[in-house]
## 1
Amino acid sequence: MNHQVVTYLAEGVDWIRFDVDALLGQFWNNTIEGLSQGSIYALVALGYTLVYGVLRLINFAHSEVFVFGVFAAYFTFYGLGFRPGPTVTLGIGELILFLLLALIAAMAVSGATAVVLERVAYRPLRRRNAPSLVFLITAIGASFVMQQVLFIWRGGNAEQAIRLLRPEPVFTVFNTAVTNIQIITVLAALVLLVVADTFINRTRLGRGIRAVAQDPDTATLMGVNKERVIMITFLVGGLLAGAAALFYLMKIPQGASYQGGFLLGIKAFTAAVLGGIGNLRGALLGGLLLGVVENYGQSLFGGDWRDIVAFVLLIVILMFRPTGILGESLGKARV
Amino acid sequence: MLAAATSLVLGACAARTDTASGGDTAGTGNASAPDKPADAADPRGDGTAKCSGAAIAYAGTINGANAALGLNILYGVQLAVNQHNEANKDCQVELKQFDTEGTPDRATGVVPQVVNDSAILGVVGLPFSGESKATGDVFNQAGLVTITPSATNPELTTHGWKTFFRALGNDAVQGPAAAKFLTDNLKATKVCVIKDDSEYGTGLANAVVQALGDKASCQESVKTKQTDFAAVVGKVQSENPDAIFYAGYYQEAAPFAQQLFDKGVQAKFVAPDGVKDEEFVKGAGDAAPNSFFTCPCVPADAFTDFTNGYKQLANREPGTYSPEGYDAATILLKGIDKGITDRAGMLDFVRNYDGQGLTKRFKWDANGELTQTPVWSYKVDGGKIVKNVEIG
């Protein structure tokens, strides 16, 4: 047998390509897929944006708050008696019930995780007036600790896929099938965003959050309970991450892995910055934009360029609009 | 042979209800697992060996990443040593274990300990290509022979290391074999080759593309840890290939295969040894029954004596490179039984070795590559990975 060693330095293989045909041919598929992935980015991005708006803190451990939600949804499925293997067929009533249960579990676990994280990691630092650098390194440390706890508990392999709902085309747009899971994800993300937006802008608690974001000291003097506001901010961010976790697990059934939040967290944070950090609607816009642009980039330049395209876009937009597309808004005074 | 082929056809059809084909699977090659060769080297020997203070070592991942792969090998080695020691009361060989955690960083710290233990006459390891590359020169300078049962990067035998021997075919063998399987067995004329960004994936993908020639109708790449493959799936769907070859590991292969399946892509999914793991079957869900694997490893199904011993020792079925680990250890034990007491003698013994093992005939060329390297294809049946046919 021939044992001549082939040199694998790819000669004649393009290191970049401009496949306009693929970009145009795949345009609608990429757009629709990108919007559903972008909705997940947006829901996670809201958590980054809220905490940043109130505390000026980049909560790097938010990606793990999300992953805890993914595991909660997974074990809800498991607890309901579902096992890895072929997708089962469920009645519509059962399906909605089970998904709602998983949604509640994921939101509860992510919300609780976020609140506990705030209590354990950030509140003691705030009491001691620690500089912001300390908060940053604590956030990174907390992220690692939570990740490794999952690793020790569940090991390095992803959980075996459990799926309650198979993606089935519901209707087609421009010859591209739109699946039930995509519809659920996008609609739910929009609904949750409207709810969050209304909560922040129309309710008493929301006014408290905006007040603390604008000027914590004055807000305290005016009788706003700052600690409570901060706790609620983390809770809301956690609840939204929990919802994102369920939709993510429905889309990627193999997603329950200890390091499954890392890349998604960075992308969501990017989405938050892209739209204007501290701005709820900006998070949605940034998430959706990032989701589609990633796919366009992959089709146009090839898979190796997927992440590069997303981050080059971020840099370009920040060059022209340093506060993001919609600008910062949570802390802005409104009449 | 005919019966085996028929059952394969039935198995392939039963596994998927929505495709009519599947009968072309067993097109060429031998479909029955090889029996234990009559002249296969047995670690027990004739039971009259005499030695004292001799040891061999396993160095590789034990608790680290991808530990399952390392343990498959370690148990194979342990079985050979146990069988040897039970049969030869006057020659008790010690098996020393060193955990490299599968990473080059850790391996460079551990390998000097192996080299400095003068009782060790030979090493089975290191399992992975990256760690092998990082430590090959240390072994070479110490004159300590290493037989790797699973590192497949072709480049490893180009460094001029006199002590490096590979107990299986490398990726330059697996690549063309995979291409042959795709075109001859699966009768594919349009193949999409998808690679991840690892050393292993890119190297293997290029070898497959070269061997496929113009039958490689599309090429795409994905990133390690990517989970959303929508754009690649869309591209593959528009190409409508007969088969897909995924060069990478199971972590990405599982969601990728499932997303292909969900989009209605009917092409056969073929992946190499890095995906051939039960973890893939569990992860890919509905898509798993449509999958095939290529691997320079020989199915252990018919090695009854080996399999029984392995199950007793490890409390589970032999894994991907277990028989290869057993064979490698057996060669070192044969050397000790011959009365070899120093590393130079062992190196000389392995270099000139020519004998049948469980998996294949072991005879190395000057670079440390085997002269005979079978590659097998595997498939998913009943939620388990089972042998398909030998490619060639």
## 2
Amino acid sequence: MNKRTFIKRVPGGKTLQIDIDCNERINYVLISGDFFAYPEDFIDKLQEAITGKNISEAIKTITFLYKKMKPELLGISIDDIIDVLRKACA
Amino acid sequence: MSWRLIIDKGNTYWNMAVDEAILIHREKNLVPNTLRIYVFEPSGVTIGYFQKVREVLNLDYLLQNKIDFTRRITGGGAVYHDSEGEITYAVIADIEDISRDVTESYKIICGGIVYALRKLGLKAVYKPVNDILVNNKKISGSAQTRKKKSLLQHGTLMYNTNLDMLEKTLRPPRVKLEDHGVVRVSDRVTTIYRELGREISIDDIINTLVQGFKKALGVDKFLSGNLTVSERKLAEKLYSKYESKVWIYMR
């Protein structure tokens, strides 16, 4: 496994950290930080849902899950998560 | 509307177990809205639900010094709860009695602390979403979780926190420090005693805090109470979750 860590400090917000192993597919992903998510299990479900997918499938999955669960994120946004994932898998 | 007021103390696992037990009972409408004010005895550390334990805590130091630490069910950051320098509060209430809007509910509840600090003579400022500052330094932080009908918001109020201990137990990410424009943790947090330049009694702080919440939450009356038998039983069960490695090292 080739795990790497990406950290984004959202201006005026919180810290988002993504530990990821990504080649053609996302083999492993862990999202952490001092942000808030309502409901909290959105983050757990998102991690589960994108594992095993390539980056474009993963982004589609995130968008779908986001629309379905309508979570409220404080301190980070869904675009921050997508942004870091894109960089991590580039 | 009258609320239940519980003032107590406990260790790190018990305190987190009690907050969750009350929330679950409030959700089922088995207990009234509750303000709990409590102390960590002995001192302990809690981290936010989404935090990576190894990333944010000095585990070597905590383990060597046998300081309890656990993960909260609420998001947010890591906290050092000093048994002789920090008071923790928990508001457990029907969402409709506070606000459906998450950001607004943080503001309303934090308003109680701001009110109390101002009453004590400090120029406290609410910094969205979950901080309260005095002289541009953090004196209180809060975190909220929600179920369908009820919310739990708990948070800190530092009156004489040992800032050296805080710095030894927590490991803030470098990016965060740079963003705040300072290097040391103790440069960006402060306490009531430090800001007032004198000590005041803990009873006075607690009484002022209760007054603050009464005003901020529109409470008619606080009735002193205890946990119900059912809440206590559930807290005993949840205790083992909070001390388990599976829970603590989840991230």
